[in-house]
Amino acid sequence: MRRLFGSVRARATLAATAVVAVALVAAGAAVLLSLRANLIDQAGTQAERAARNVAADLSGGTPYTGLELDDDEPVQVVDAHGRLVAATEHLEHISGTGVTEVKPQSPAGGTGGTPGAVGTEDPDDSDDVAAGVDAAGDTPSALEPGEIADDVRLTAGSATIDGKPADYRFAAVEVEVPDRGTLTVYAGASLDPEQGAVGTAQTVMLVGFPLLLGVVAAVTWLVTRRALRPVEGIRAEMAAITASEDLARRVPVPDTHDEVARLARTTNETLAALETSVERQRRFVADASHELRSPIASLRTQLEVAAAHPELLDLEGAVEDTVRLQHLAADLLLLARLDAGERPQNTRFDLAGVVREQAAGRTGVTVDAEGVEVAGSRGQVERLLANLLDNAQRHARSRVAVAVRQAGRQAVVEVADDGTGVPVGDRERIFERFVRLDEARARDDGGAGLGLAIARDVAVRHGGTLTVRDTTAGGALFELRLPVA
To answer: Which residues touch 80 (CB under 8 Å, ≥6 apart)?
Structure first.
């Protein structure tokens, strides 16, 4: 189970299904509420229509017993004193109208109104009605005789007719009847259609929503599988590359323009960079072994000869080989630290002062420097400048000129010699490790080919650049640019 829901496809399917489920529930609730409200409004309209029909009959003088009341819908007629004067036949129970009586009340010994009618007016109240004041002394109605009120009161309740209980929407309408005063007609409309429609809608949703969610989940699962198929291909190829250690292989790039295709291209770029780095590391190890073998072999030979013939010991040569080994070991250690991503320190120092220190004591080297501060590792920058000066002196005929200036937000150091210069095709190659342009040059004179590589790496680590071009006199001019502190 954990493995199943640990996949992107399963999580995407689950998330899409959950979102659709929430949306369906919200939409279903809104539909049910809207449907219920509309059906209740229709029931209210129907109840109001029935109440106004009865009120119209009363305003026309129809006696209580002559009213045509629907046997299936509850109707009550209440006078101004709250007495039930007419009601639907077989009405057994009612609530929600404010009048719980279900049988009309007969007046106490009078026949006012229509002879023989049930619930006619009390003769004792006739004078009050004629005088415009009801028996309770209330303020007379604002309606004109025969007028039906425009306002309607809607309430919810229930009623039982002929043993059948049901919920109803009741409408109350007032009517002013001559000789009877203000009457209130309560008419109800059944809510069974509303309840049936809402119940049917709920049933449809309870059945349809799970089916729809199943379809959404299946479609999402299939679409996600199709979308992630290239990712699986990339994963499988990466696993094969890891197992075979063949960095020349590349992952397949899908013929699309989406994120997966960009992922595949980025992965191939990473593999290419890794292959280059590994190959560079292999060459570095091979070249370092080769460079170390010569001075070690020479030193061993001298020591063996000295052991057998002490008088033949070349002490000066042994010291030179030892110093060369020391410098080479220091260069290799610095390159290893740079390759490991060692960050330079953030120390501020005067670049012109460092240049003067490195140029001091060197024959044929002139310095024209203005003060400019940079930030970084003073030791690494000193090593960079020393390598540039060593290289310039090695190739110069007679002199080396060093200039330091500020150009905008950059400090510029130019080291120029009056030698033969660097061919255009070799101006990037000379910054590679263990590269010497003059392979016939003696190793003692030409060095190990690491000085310019170290200088370029230090410049890049400090956010700068190191390039080479020709001087006007034809020699080489190395230009170092570092950000100003």
So the answer is: 134, 138, 141, 181, 182, 183
**How are beta strands 347-350 and 373-376 bridged, if at all?**
antiparallel
Q: What is the DSSP string of 60-73?
A: TT--GGG----SSS
Going by C-alpha positions, the residue among 159, 141, 142, 130 that lies closest to residue 79 is 141
Q: Which fold has domain 343-483?
A: Heat Shock Protein 90 (3.30.565)
Residue 161 pairs in a beta bridge with: 91, 164
Residue 249, number of CB atoms within 10 A of its CB: 14
pLDDT tens string 430-458? 888 777 765 434 444 556 678 898 899 99
Distance CA 16, CA 22 (A): 10
Angle at 153 between CA 88 and CA 89, to 5 degrees: 0
- pLDDT at residue 110 in the model: 35
Beta bridge partners of 153: 172
Question: Three-state DSSP class for 80?
Answer: coil
pLDDT in the model for residue 352: 92
Which residues are within 8 A (CB) of 145 and not within 5 positions of it... i.e. 6 or more apart? 176, 177, 178
CB 343 within 8 A of CB 324: no
**pTM here?**
0.49
Predicted pLDDT of residue 87: 92
Residue 310 in this model has a pLDDT that exceeds 90? no
Residue with tokens 């996600």: 224
- Topology of domain 248-342 in CATH is Helix Hairpins (1.10.287)
Could you give the strand order of the β-sheet that contains 400-407, starting from the edge strand earlier in sequence? 365-369, 400-407, 410-417, 476-483, 465-470
Tens-place pLDDT, residues 313-327: 777 777 877 877 887
Q: Contact at 8 Å (CB) between 399 and 364?
A: yes
Question: What residue segments make up the domains of the chain, in order of their start?
Answer: 1-246, 248-342, 343-483
pLDDT value at residue 5: 54
C-alpha distance from residue 229 to each of 223, 252, 261, 437, 474 (Å): 10, 11, 12, 51, 60
> What is the distance between the alpha carbons of residues 317 and 315, in angstroms, rounded to a whole number?
5
User: Which of these, 40, 38, 100, 107, lies nearest to 74 by C-alpha position?
Assistant: 100
Nearest-angstrom CA–CA distance, 70 and 48: 14
SS3 343: coil
Please provide the distance, in angstroms rounded to a whole number, between the alpha carbons at the two ends of the chain: 57
Backbone angles phi, psi at 418, to 5 degrees: -105, 35
461 residue type, one letter:
R
- Structure tokens that stand for 439 in this block: 């392979």
From residue 345, give the alpha-carbon distance in Å to each of 316, 354, 373, 462: 38, 16, 14, 9
